[in-house]
Design a protein that fits this description.
By secondary structure, the chain is an alpha/beta fold. The chain has four helices and three strands, in the order αβαβαβα. The chain has a domain of 56 residues. 21% of the residues are buried.
């Protein structure tokens, strides 16, 4: 079993409402984890783009306000049921 660490943007003070790629990269560096070993779960197109730009696996949750088409893109898994997330992360 691999070790997993979790961080949340809501626990980090920030100026913008969503984290830019450099903030995502900084969080990974602080935890000592390379960006390509990180997974980001986001419900905004901006957050998904930031995760991809930082070189992280992006999971776009479309079960809220943002439609799937706005979250979709290269290297992004789009899903609409949170109960599916554990299996998606295991892939």
């Amino acid at each position: 079993m691999s070790a997993r660490r979790t961080t949340s943007g809501s626990r980090t003070p920030r100026r913008a409402s969503k984290s830019p790629p450099r903030e995502a990269s900084r969080k990974a560096e602080t935890m000592g984890v390379p960006p390509d070993r990180c997974a980001v779960v986001e419900d905004s197109a901006y957050g998904v783009r930031a995760a991809r730009a930082a070189g992280m696996r992006a999971f776009g949750y479309c079960g809220g306000l943002t439609p799937a088409a706005r979250l979709a893109g290269p290297g992004t898994v789009v899903f609409d049921e949170m109960r599916d997330l554990p299996a998606l992360l295991a892939d």
